[in-house]
Design a protein that fits this description.
By secondary structure, this protein is α+β, with helices and mostly antiparallel strands. It has 2 helices and 3 strands, in the order αβαββ. It has a 3-stranded antiparallel beta sheet with strand order 1-2-3, with no helix packed on it. The protein starts with 17 loop residues before the first helix and ends in a 12-residue tail after the last strand.
Length: about 90
């Protein structure tokens, strides 16, 4: 919060480029990301919100954005219907 206090990042519409553009304007643009991915069975509230049957697994993704200095500046947690998404990653060896 110390990075974004009083900025447009706290608004629902952060403008063109989204929060990453606003973080860059504040001098804290993301330089790298880390994602943690796991799957599990949904809790009741998730089946309701996602409109999925009780037995459908969900995928959880927690993405953390870091500045070049290693400071975390954003955490985004996503819960996805595992039957509706394909996760594809492309990276150098």
């Amino acid at each position: 919060m110390s990075v974004v206090a009083g900025s447009v990042i706290l608004r629902k519409d952060t403008g063109p480029g989204g929060i990453y553009a606003r973080l860059a304007e504040l001098g804290h643009g993301p330089a790298r990301f880390r994602e943690e991915v796991c799957s599990r069975m949904p809790v009741k509230a998730e089946t309701t919100v996602l409109h999925i049957p009780t037995g459908t697994p969900v995928i959880l993704i927690r993405r953390t954005a870091f500045t070049g200095e290693g400071r975390p500046v954003e955490v985004n947690e996503m819960t996805l219907d595992a039957a509706s998404y394909v996760l594809e990653y492309d990276f150098d060896a």
